[in-house]
């Protein structure tokens, strides 16, 4: 029986991954919920997690607090940890101190709690973003710094730390602060969609594939400090994706590329090495971009 501790379970990917893993008969899932001012966060769980509350356990900690993190890991006794928690993925104005405390120190506290203070963890998988490759903003730079420390521990201490670089994830449950849900809302409402130039080439991955890719990494025979790309290996321009959405919606509005500025520091192309990932863990994406967009536009 695998015992998996998941941080960031209330986020977009976490809300899909927790039910995915909890549905496996050989897996016990515990989620780590933030503890604030020494009290558990009593906000209700998202509906997707409320629906399976009897199938999951909960521990509480603020990852910025090392003692709380150690306590939570000891309580959960996980064999595997999937670290999704982060601040600022959709916040272009993320402050430096916030990014460092959550994304750098929070990750380091979790890593040390797993491998210095407990002995049950066989593998820790941390989520990365392709924006790290160009340090495109404070969020990406803080995530890259955290991974540099993970690499150091993996290579010098042989701690079984691996990373999933998750490319342009999308799917049901994503908020309208993200491109695809925002474009779908506008298209279905018959509204125009102001956007940047849209020339950026991105590798799009549907949420079901993200979950399957993370699951395929569990107990895979990987050396420490390895990053695997979770993506399709196929790129599509942002403007073409929005155009597909409007074509599927069949409304009166239209995309309006160029009305908003491109983000400074953005890489023009982000492409997953899907062939390497398949070679190392035998996994590839199953949902094409066209199929994933159609599911979202039709509400499926």
Account of the protein in words:
- The protein is α/β, with parallel strands linked by helices and 300 residues long.
- The chain has a domain at 1-166: Rossmann fold (3-Layer(aba) Sandwich), CATH 3.40.50.720.
- 39% of the residues lie in helices and 20% in strands.
- A 7-stranded parallel beta sheet has the order 5-2-1-6-7-8-12, with helices on both faces. A 3-stranded mixed beta sheet has the order 9-11-13.
- Strand 1, helix 1 (12-22) and strand 2 form a beta-alpha-beta unit.
- Helix 1 crosses helix 7 (207-217), helix 6 runs parallel beside helix 8 and helix 8 (238-249) crosses helix 10.
- The chain is globular and about 60 Å long.
- The model has no long low-confidence stretch (mean pLDDT 95).
């Amino acid at each position: 029986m695998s015992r998996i501790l998941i941080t960031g379970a209330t986020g977009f990917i976490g809300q899909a991954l927790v039910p995915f893993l909890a549905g496996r008969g050989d897996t016990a899932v515990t989620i780590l919920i933030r503890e604030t001012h020494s009290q558990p966060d009593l906000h209700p769980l998202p509906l997707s997690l409320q629906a399976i509350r009897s199938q999951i356990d909960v521990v509480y900690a603020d990852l910025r607090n090392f003692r709380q993190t150690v306590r939570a890991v000891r309580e959960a006794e996980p064999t595997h940890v999937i670290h999704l928690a982060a601040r600022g993925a959709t916040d272009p104005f993320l402050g430096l101190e916030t990014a460092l405390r959550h994304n750098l120190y929070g990750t380091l506290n979790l890593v040390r709690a797993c491998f210095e203070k407990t002995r049950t963890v066989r593998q820790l998988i941390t989520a990365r973003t392709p924006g790290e490759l160009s340090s495109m903003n404070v969020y990406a730079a803080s995530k890259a710094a955290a991974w540099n420390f993970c690499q150091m521990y993996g290579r010098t201490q042989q701690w079984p730390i691996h990373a999933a670089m998750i490319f342009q994830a999308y799917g049901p449950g994503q908020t309208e602060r993200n491109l695809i849900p925002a474009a779908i809302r506008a298209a279905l409402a018959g509204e125009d969609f102001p956007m940047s130039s849209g020339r950026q080439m991105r590798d799009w991955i549907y949420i079901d594939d993200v979950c399957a890719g993370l699951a395929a990494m569990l107990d895979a025979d990987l050396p420490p400090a390895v990053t695997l790309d979770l993506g399709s290996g196929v790129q599509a321009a942002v403007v073409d994706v929005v155009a597909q959405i409007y074509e599927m919606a069949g409304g009166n509005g239209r995309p309006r590329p160029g009305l908003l500025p491109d983000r400074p520091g953005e890489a023009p192309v982000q492409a997953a090495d899907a062939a390497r990932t398949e070679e190392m863990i035998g996994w590839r994406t199953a949902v094409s971009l066209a199929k994933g967009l159609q599911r979202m536009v039709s509400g499926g």
